[in-house]
Design goal:
Distance between the termini: 53 Å
CATH class: Mainly Beta
Helix content: under 10%
Strand content: over 45%
CATH architecture: Beta Barrel
Shape: globular
Radius of gyration: 23 Å
CATH superfamily: TonB-dependent receptor, beta-barrel domain
Number of domains: 1
CATH topology: Maltoporin, Chain A
């Protein structure tokens, strides 16, 4: 074990979590049902994997300006962003790279085949109902890239009587936001459910870069985002259902590229769509067949010249056949998945603009008294040959409140198109990364008070490292990406939640050591410690809250030459229930106007205020 945690640090982190976990880590015994951890609905109390949910209520009360802001407040997660809410962003789970995470929207896999990561800035927070985050490798369930974890976003779904919800808000930097949703469901044998949402966000923003940057321009870099989404399902007969869903989001954002009068900007189109059918041909077998597409299209306009235009469009197509076979209280899952990736760009020529992956997987979830067990195996076959992954997890309930868990899982990530073919940067000889993760955990949860601790050690081989300057080959002096021998992601996450004198207290702390084993250097833009603390109190029609976000220092580069200082941010929020259907929200982020860095020479938001009013009829 190489992670060095001093006794005072360990005791203080444990005390912090016992006193309070972070705002969005709900107690396990609250009846929450999750899907992502096993690819099938399961009570959160029966899940072995370290999992949290962010509910619709928590999202609406958060006042977060973007999904990145929301994720930054979750345990085990760090972010980086090149400016304001409309600029390029990265999400790191447990010290893993931003392309070590799978992101799903209603079960549809998203992300760029060139960068390997989701375009977080284009994902509209206004369309989201709730979010599930599963920590640790899930390649045995989801295939390539699930090294650090899986984040699944669920859009709004119709149920019950017809209802309308709407929100409008205004804040600093002339940030404007509005959204509305119509949803409901009919009764009877052939019930039909529906939900249609639309939203728009616009902000004048602030300068994306600082004066020390070679790309600095003092102008404001704003963004304009609009989205529409929908879910529809029809109950054909008992046990038989057909449905469709979609999400369409357009983002037009400005960024800096030097002191020029030209309006430098980027445009992104993010889309998902799926058709699915569910059937019970046999009473103990649930079958799902789904066809899904996701698009991640991007354009940049860096100058008026023809060379200032760049286009990269990627598309993923998935066909999934999943059978959940109930054997008593156990579930055997058998899965086939076909994924096709396509890339179209004007930046460089691709000899193979598309690639396919065929996958077969099986998993088994069982409970015997106080014992919980899950096991999974998967085989992915693509242009890299066959990759086999597996996982095994065990949990033991000492009491109804106290559980210990242990798990082991393997994972891999295929090189992206950029890492293989981008001129002067990629290398067709780059190999897939592979991971082996072991972890143990313990948690207490009595439905009101909760505390958990999870220790993990994820050993990566053939990690793809991007560095400037390139140390070898024809790219010397420029950037390049190449496999290094080993890297280790090791850490301890402690979290807790309680209620004292009517105040809900939540806290978490992460102590980690994500490093390149060859050089001993810390992986770029990851701290050794970060945490969150929040408190909220309801009095009459008011709900008042405060948050503290903390992070240690990080390095902006793989060679650990450019240090980014640690920071602490204080946020305040309040909601007021005007009537049964109307409520108001005000949020003040970074009340101390703290200047901090998430990426070198890129600006971050100062003190910002946002207020809004919500209508919801149910």
């Amino acid at each position: 074990m190489t992670l060095r945690i001093s006794r005072p640090a360990a005791l203080s982190s444990l005390a912090l979590a016992m006193a309070a976990c972070y705002a969005h880590a709900e107690p396990v015994n609250n009846g929450t049902v999750v899907v992502t951890a096993t690819r099938t609905p399961q009570p959160l109390a029966n899940v072995i994997s370290d999992t949290i949910t962010i509910s619709a209520e928590q999202i609406s009360e958060s006042g977060a300006g973007s999904i990145i802001d929301l994720l930054q407040r979750q345990r085990g997660i760090e972010i980086a962003r090149n400016g304001g809410a409309g600029t390029a962003s990265s999400v790191y789970i447990r010290g893993a790279n931003s392309n070590h995470n799978i992101v799903l929207v209603d079960g549809v896999r998203i992300g760029s085949s060139t960068t390997g990561a989701a375009n977080w800035s284009a994902i509209p927070l206004t369309a989201i109902d709730h979010i599930e985050i599963v920590y640790g490798p899930l390649s045995s369930l989801y295939g390539a890239d699930a090294i650090g974890g899986v984040i699944q976003i669920f859009t709004k779904k119709g149920k019950g009587a017809p209802s309308v919800t709407a929100f409008a808000g205004y804040g600093s930097d002339k940030t404007r936001e509005a959204d509305a949703t119509l949803s409901g469901a009919t009764g009877g044998e052939h019930s039909f459910s529906y939900a249609i949402s639309a939203g728009k966000e616009k902000s004048d923003g602030f300068s994306a870069t600082r004066p020390a940057s070679g790309s600095y321009n003092p102008d404001r870099d704003g963004y304009d985002k609009e989205n529409v989404s929908g879910q529809f399902s029809l109950q054909l007969a008992p046990g038989y259902e057909a449905g469709a869903l979609f999400l369409h989001s357009k983002l037009d954002s400005q960024y800096d590229s030097g002191a020029s009068a030209y309006d430098v900007r980027s445009k992104a189109l993010f889309e998902t769509a799926a058709l699915y059918g569910k059937a019970q041909f046999v009473s103990n077998v649930d079958t799902l067949l789904q066809y899904a597409e996701s698009k991640d299209n991007g354009e940049t306009f860096s100058s008026a010249a023809a060379t200032g235009y760049s286009r990269i469009n990627t598309k993923q197509t998935d066909i999934t056949l999943q059978n959940d076979i109930r054997i008593g209280e156990d579930v055997l899952q058998v899965l086939y998945d076909h994924r096709k990736e396509e890339v179209d760009t004007n930046g460089f020529k691709l000899d193979k603009p598309e690639r396919t992956t065929n996958s077969w997987a099986a998993s088994y979830n069982a409970r015997r008294g106080a014992n919980l067990l899950n096991a999974a195996i998967r085989r992915d076959k693509s242009v890299y040959g066959a990759k086999n992954t597996g996982s095994l997890g065990y949990g033991y309930d000492f009491t109804r409140q106290l559980r210990a868990t242990a798990s082991y899982g393997t994972s891999f990530r295929a090189p992206t198109y950029n890492e293989l073919y981008y001129p002067g940067y990629g290398n067709p000889a780059n190999k897939p990364e592979q991971g082996k993760n072991a972890e143990i955990g313990i948690r207490w949860d009595d439905g009101v008070n909760a505390i958990s601790a999870n220790y993990y050690r994820n050993r990566l081989t053939d990690l793809l490292l991007s560095t400037t300057p390139c140390p070898f080959g024809t790219s010397t002096g420029k950037s390049c990406v190449y496999n290094i021998a080993n890297a280790t992601l090791e850490g301890l996450t402690v979290a807790g939640a309680t209620k004292l004198a009517g105040v809900n207290l939540n806290a978490s702390i992460d102590l980690q050591d994500p490093k390149d084993d060859n050089s001993g250097k810390r992986l770029a833009r990851r701290s050794k410690k970060h945490g969150n603390l929040s408190a909220d109190y309801a009095i009459g029609q008011w709900k008042l809250g405060a948050e503290l976000d903390l992070s240690g220092d990080r390095y902006d580069d793989a060679l650990n030459k450019t240090r980014l200082g640690g920071y602490g941010l204080v946020n305040l929020f309040a909601t007021y229930a005007i009537t049964r259907d109307w409520s108001a929200l005000v949020r003040w982020n970074n009340i101390g106007d703290k200047q901090y860095d998430l990426a070198n020479n890129y600006a971050t938001p100062g003190s910002k205020v946002f207020a809004g009013i919500r209508y919801g009829y149910k």
